Amino acid sequence: MTSPKPRVVLGVTAGIAAYKVCELLRRLTESGHDVTVVPTADALRFVGEPTWAALSGNPVATQVWDGVSGVPHVRLGQTADLVFVAPATANTLARAAHGLADDLLTNTLLTARCPVVFAPAMHTEMWEHPATQANVATLRERGAVVVDPASGRLTGADTGPGRLPDPAELFEVARRVLARGGATPHTPRGAQVASPWGAWERDLAGRHVVVSAGGTREALDPVRFLGNRSSGLQGYALARTAVARGARVTLVAANVALPDPAGARVVRVESAEDMRKAVLAAADDGADAVVMAAAVADFRPADYRDAKIKKTPGEGPEPIRLVQNPDILAELGARPHPGQVIVGFAAETHDVLANGRAKLARKGCDLLVVNQVGAELTFGRPDNEAVVLAADGSAPVQVPRGPKEDLADVIWDQVAARLAPPGVPPL
């Protein structure tokens, strides 16, 4: 009998980060997924078979020759809704890219007709080696999502790119990939498949997207600043969903206390001017789309005090004179940007649609996401509702209240529909 739960094959390979994957497995099982763990033989040197069996609630598949009557080397891939390999070592990436089938995991990868995700983890020199990068490019061309590793402390004293992303963030990648492709019917046996893992919505593959998130802070003195209530949740949801749809993501984050989304390059900034420089630099780095989800302060203090402003007994505070900050969205819209889709956000408290339409005309962006903000609305909440307006005259897209990831997917749907096909010069 077919399991009603989403079926996930969790491939574990021989890296020290295998212990972190126990947390990913726990999150998958506790959220209702039916998980079969397929470790390589050497992976069991790091975490043993009893641990994987206890956490998954299923027998652990380790050998091609186990349970031969059930043909596990074919069945696991054929029946999976998602294959997720973490950590993916350089050796595993190479074997997968070259179609080797010398153990149960690589056999499963060859028979899978569902979304496949690799989460690499290795030393920096191995990750940056041309051979590894070529293998990653091959896997992505075939439809796999390869999540760029995080930067940080590695085994021993080494530091750099190659660290396995946070398991909670890897779980979000798995969740979003399943949401996009988990319902895709399996490819019929015997069908000709040029890209076996690409039959699902990976419409941002090969694209570079830039997302801004959070709220800028404008310093008054070394202690105080002018800021806003933005949490960065919507921008981070945009980054996560873009990674799951295959994009290379640059996330410009202002004063956000959230874990880095797996697979995104995070650039941290503080002020509006900091954000302007970072966003423009990323936009000029071959960006196909720029989504300005951050709440950028409209004004900043005209005068910065080098020392903390003191109270004077019996006297009121001195007035704070403000000057306008640069308008990053308007600057992006005013620049020639053939083939680059610019998306703005309008946070309004009153006359939401009227103000949104006026802002769309004024800013020169291609799309504007208009939402109502205020007490108990949008800022800091996991849900959102919005209207997406388009400069090309398309009908507004109403997005009902729901998780911010759902709004993010609607936004990327609208962006993807406006991107020129890869290799086609923009009009």
Low-confidence stretches: 182-193
User: Major sheet: size, sense and barrel closure?
Assistant: 8 strands, mixed
- Tally of DSSP helical segments: 13
Number of strands: 19
How much helix, percentage-wise, in residues? 25-40%
Can you tell me the CATH topology of the largest domain?
Answer: Rossmann fold
Q: Can you tell me the CATH class of the largest domain? A: Alpha Beta
Number of domains: 2
CATH architecture of the largest domain: 3-Layer(aba) Sandwich
Spatial shape: globular
Organism: Actinomadura macrotermitis
Cofactor: FMN; Mg(2+)
Domain DNA/pantothenate metabolism flavoprotein C-terminal: 204-417
EC number: 4.1.1.36, 6.3.2.5
Account of the protein in words:
- The strands form five sheets. The chain has an eight-stranded mixed beta sheet with strand order 12-11-8-13-16-17-18-19, with helices on both faces.
- Helix 1 (18-30) links the parallel strand 1 (7-12) and strand 2 (34-39).
- The model is unreliable at 182-193 (pLDDT under 50).
- Helix content is 32%, strand content 23%.
- It is globular.
- It is built from 13 helices and 19 strands.
- It has helices at residues 18-30, 49-56, 72-79, 90-97, 104-111, 124-128, 130-141, 167-181, 233-244, 272-283, 328-334, 352-363, 404-418, and strands spanning 7-12, 34-39, 82-88, 116-120, 145-146, 150-153, 159-163, 208-214, 218-219, 225-226, 248-254, 264-269, 289-292, 299-301, 322-324, 341-348, 367-372, 383-390, 397-403.
- The N and C termini lie far apart (53 Å).
- Helix 1 crosses helix 8 (167-181), helix 4 (90-97) packs across helix 7 and helix 8 packs across helix 9.
- It has two domains: 7-181, Rossmann fold (3-Layer(aba) Sandwich), CATH 3.40.50; 208-303 and 315-418, CoaB-like (Rossmann fold, 3-Layer(aba) Sandwich).
- The longest helix is centred in the middle third of the chain and has 15 residues, at 167-181.
- It is of the alpha/beta class.
